Amino acid sequence: ALTPFVEGEWLHSENGVRTLSVLEPQNLTLEVLDGIRAHSWKIDPPPETPEGWVCRFADRIAYLTHDVSDALRAGVIDYHDIPQDTFTTFGSTSTEWIGSMVTAVIEASYRSGKVEMGEEHLAVMDRLRDFMFERVYLSPDSEKQKSRAIQIIQDLVGHYRDHPEEIPDSYLVPKSEPLTAAIDYVAGMTDRFALHQWDSLFRPQLEF
Question: Helices 30-37 and 50-73: crossing angle, nearest 10°?
Fold first, then answer.
């Protein structure tokens, strides 16, 4: 949603490093910043530290297991739809999945001396992820919601770019352009706050 406003690609991981280094500076170590920068598997170069690799595996384990649970509760998928080797390899519940996946990383890392997951376990996790992309992440309903979310975010960035006086001072880095401040502000919003701001700015207000 924010990529059209920047050169190259906007990445939330890089924004996390920017937030903790520029907007809200913290005394963080290289290892912590490396974990934030490269926790997503799409990021290249990959993590440069063992701690960064731990964050990368933790991120995938966390979002994958919780997304499956959410999709089951919402009725988007059924237990019988899930690849069966997920259950035979990791267990029958999301809690067991998390424990098994973490254990698989620990055991493989202990054997090899570097942070990794065994090939068999990684293949099962990758098949589960592929299933989630097919049935959940890229489903027509998800794509429709994604389009709406993109529009809301871009509307907000455009508004605050044109009205930088409405941006809190904490997001105004000295000498930064209004667009940069607008991106920083919108990128830091929670979903609920972004929806509230969009409603107040763009939804017609009825007068009685």
Answer: 40
Please state whether the peptide bond connecting residue 45 to the residue before it is cis, i.e. omega within 30 degrees of 0.
yes
Q: How far apart are CA 128 and CA 131, in angstroms?
A: 5
Read off the pTM: 0.83
The SS3 call for residue 96 is helix
**Nearby residues of 109 by Cβ (< 8 Å), 6 or more positions away:** 115, 116
Closest by alpha carbon to 65, among 32, 37, 91? Answer: 91
Q: What is the DSSP string of 190-208?
A: -HHHHHHHHHHHHSPPP--
Alpha-carbon gap, residue 171 to 188, rounded angstroms: 9
Residue boundaries of the structural domains of the chain: 38-138, 142-202
Report the residue count for the chain.
208
Q: Hunting for tokens 């598997």 — which residue is that?
A: 41
Cβ-Cβ contacts under 8 Å for 83 (sequence gap 6 or more): 124, 127, 128, 131
Q: From first to last of its 208 residues, what are the pLDDT tens digits of the chain?
A: 999 999 888 999 999 999 999 988 999 999 999 999 999 988 889 999 999 999 999 999 999 999 999 999 999 999 999 999 999 999 999 999 999 999 999 999 999 999 999 999 999 999 999 999 999 999 998 999 999 999 999 999 999 999 999 999 888 888 889 999 999 999 999 999 999 999 999 987 655 5
